[in-house]
Amino acid sequence: MAKPKKTPRPKAETPKGFTDYFGSDVTQRKEMLDGIAAVYHRYGFDALESSAVETVEALGKFLPDVDRPNEGVFAWQEADDNDKGDWLALRYDLTAPLARVYAQHRNDLPTLYRRYAMGPVWRNEKPGPGRFRQFYQCDADTVGTASMAADAEICAMLSDTLEEVGIPRGDYLVRINNRKVLNGVLEAIGPREDQITHDNVLRTIDKFDKVGEAGVRELLTKGRLDNSGAFIDGVGLSEDQAAPVLAFLTSKAADAAGTIANLRAAVGDSKVGQEGIAELEQIGELLTAQGYGADRIVIDPSVVRGLGYYTGPVFEAELTFEILDEKGRKRQFGSVAGGGRYDDLVARFTGQKVPAVGISIGVDRLLAALRAKGRVSREGQGPVIVTVMDRERMADYQAMVSELRSAGIRAEVYLGNPKNFGNQLKYADKRGSPVAVIQGGDELDKGVIMLKDLILGAQIAENATLEEWKERPSQFEVARGDLVARTREIIESHS
Amino acid sequence: MAKPKKTPRPKAETPKGFTDYFGSDVTQRKEMLDGIAAVYHRYGFDALESSAVETVEALGKFLPDVDRPNEGVFAWQEADDNDKGDWLALRYDLTAPLARVYAQHRNDLPTLYRRYAMGPVWRNEKPGPGRFRQFYQCDADTVGTASMAADAEICAMLSDTLEEVGIPRGDYLVRINNRKVLNGVLEAIGPREDQITHDNVLRTIDKFDKVGEAGVRELLTKGRLDNSGAFIDGVGLSEDQAAPVLAFLTSKAADAAGTIANLRAAVGDSKVGQEGIAELEQIGELLTAQGYGADRIVIDPSVVRGLGYYTGPVFEAELTFEILDEKGRKRQFGSVAGGGRYDDLVARFTGQKVPAVGISIGVDRLLAALRAKGRVSREGQGPVIVTVMDRERMADYQAMVSELRSAGIRAEVYLGNPKNFGNQLKYADKRGSPVAVIQGGDELDKGVIMLKDLILGAQIAENATLEEWKERPSQFEVARGDLVARTREIIESHS
């Protein structure tokens, strides 16, 4: 008989690009999501949790020429009897599922469907440092209205949300642009250019932050020598054609009215451009009337990122403070949320255009920002550890943790091998426990317990003089009946 | 040139076996999960959120003989350069990922790792009515101790958790058994039988609830005619061999001591059986000392379900009240949580046994139970709707919702086409709004607003007499400055 092949041990590893979140990583994110949901809810949005799995068809990432439609998404084919099942995939954002949900349930939903959603999304991309293939998004969308009041509301809500979770006014800016204005600028270049030129113009606009006005001018026309000495080909526009693009990029003025006037000049008599400017004006007026000034929300023509499926106004929330990157260099934190108006997504399913506008907050980036600024609640406190001095008296120790828990104090009895007392204290230390409770035979006879203030103990060990050490003992005896009251005292003395 | 093929519209459908959750479906579950997490946290467990995606290898569902290892899980192969990437899969529970996490991070984790986790899991099974392929679990586990105090604690915590989320004492029972006792019974059958006989015995034990003692006796021995007249083959044991199994099944006595004595007789001198009984005794003593009596937690030899990878004590929480099923028949609600001790899961990765014990709550079933008993918070209230009487005055209406929101009142301005006022009220109705706010030109001139109490209005419309109608107007004029105060009054009058 052949020897059975020995199965090698499986590797204990997260798949590439995935990660695990421990303790306060989880609870801090939850706290932030709760804060965001509270604002969204107060604004009248209802919760929606769609399934993590969608048909590839519904997601719209179907590439008919490839065997497996897994470009950008994690996809697999359902196995049915003749192995010709549907292709399914993990959602890559929360907007595509919303379009599917709205199309599927539109007869049961209110005429305006206002929903918020939060949860993980998955991207089948090459993972990089700090770039994960599973991450959280938190979205709010209003489906079913073309009113600019909905767009203004989304911007106001985004501003309120950032302040709610701990980004103070002045540390962020919601910037608004309009895809239609950009289209107007492209029209103003002159006779409609082919798509490739438009794409090249858009790509060049995106470099404005890096190369400035003069650089963009060169790149739009004859080309440019970059810092390394390499020559970058130009788009090939004439100076006249480049003019509206440059006017657009430099249209930001001291106030909204000034910016609007500049934009109006940039788009010339392009109808779509004028329409976009009128929309920006409306949004601006509504926000101003509600007291959202330029310290919170501004019209900013340089917002071009992620214009993909947007058809009108686009928004971006940027954190304006500087942080130190991994190499210790100062840099702007940058964007933490983006959104806009997309009027074509539902039409994919139903053939009818349904106007919609929404925002998506990059939860993990926002959380990283809050951490960088020290604005998340401090490390969650570990449990009080009731140590085990006599393993026959486990029930007594359990009674102590029960009392503590009933009083709302996080507590546990040491459940490992109690033989080595040092290991129990090491465990308490590893858990970040504030207090260890000790009751051996002597204490039992006297009706007392020892409480060890572990936070004070650590402070004393680190920097106390002998006098301080004597004056502030970190370990003391209290009556058994005072367990809860005295433990609470210690915990509160450190909060 | 060939005509481009027209792409048919995608179907707007959730994949088979998946579903979407709307509004209070989402918030009620969230509230329940928050309640469970609070108890787990108070007991000293830390949060863990592992990735939804694992390698198939780590999940341990690898079937070497099939092309695609997707039996029971949703799996796909990573595409790398030569198309020979890892097989990845969605997690099917939260325990297998815990074993992987513990094995991967064991050097950084405390010697006892106590974690809770909650989130969706996925099963690639044929969907059926009410059976979904994505559902929530909520687990707590202690890894790294063989102490029965950990098992007792899990049972106590499960009891506390059920009460915390709204299942009162008396409406549930945590039942404990021990896999080792069952193994002892199998030993007591006589000379070690082959695996198939053991499996058949286990399957027969599982039918005890249905066919009773006499039925099991027949099934274990010579076979049995079932109700339909069909003959079911017996396992083929002798009466003597069947005796310990029947003694085991009927060992439940009026109190724990009685049950233990009966079990002791059933396992005879099987060492593993006696060990299991000693463990049950220890757990029982610890729980009794903490005041968890037979009204909450009992030793019950009929708990055999899901003994799969368990190696010692097993637990099950059952709801004991009756509900009406879809056909109006009374039935026990049944199990909402299960768990036990599993000492071999981490060893798959490391080769070293790591004792562990945990519990998993079936969140969706528990929520269904709470709903069936009317014990979830009532339908979340819709937002106050500020109607739009004059579309030029949108900023005024936005100012009203801002005031309401600042006062913590959920509110929104109607963002659809305001032309038809009836549609605005229909929308408010569909959203479950408590109040509609109305201000046309007349009201504006007088410095007032109209408040429409929509809940009262609905009640009056349904059953009021003419007198009542006159006495309790559901719509009245208030000063503009009283918007917040009077709106709050109306909302509070209905809560």
TrEMBL record, chains A, B:
Enzyme Commission number(s) of this protein: 6.1.1.21
Subunit structure: Homodimer.
GO BP: any one term: histidyl-tRNA aminoacylation
Catalysis performed (reactions): tRNA(His) + L-histidine + ATP = L-histidyl-tRNA(His) + AMP + diphosphate + H(+)
Binding of L-histidine, residues: D93, L94, T95, R123, Q137, D141, R305, Y309, Y310
Family per similarity comment: Belongs to the class-II aminoacyl-tRNA synthetase family.
Signal sequence, start to end: none
Name of the featured protein: Histidine--tRNA ligase
Coiled coil regions, renumbered to chain: none
Stored SUPFAM superfamilies: Class II aaRS ABD-related, Class II aaRS and biotin synthetases
Keywords: Aminoacyl-tRNA synthetase, ATP-binding, Cytoplasm, Ligase, Nucleotide-binding, Protein biosynthesis
Subcellular location as annotated: Cytoplasm
Species classification: Bacteria, Pseudomonadati, Pseudomonadota, Alphaproteobacteria, Rhodobacterales
GO molecular function: ATP binding; histidine-tRNA ligase activity
Uppermost EC category: ligase
CDD domains (UniProt xref): HisRS-like_core (cd00773), HisRS_anticodon (cd00859)
Gene this chain is encoded by: hisS
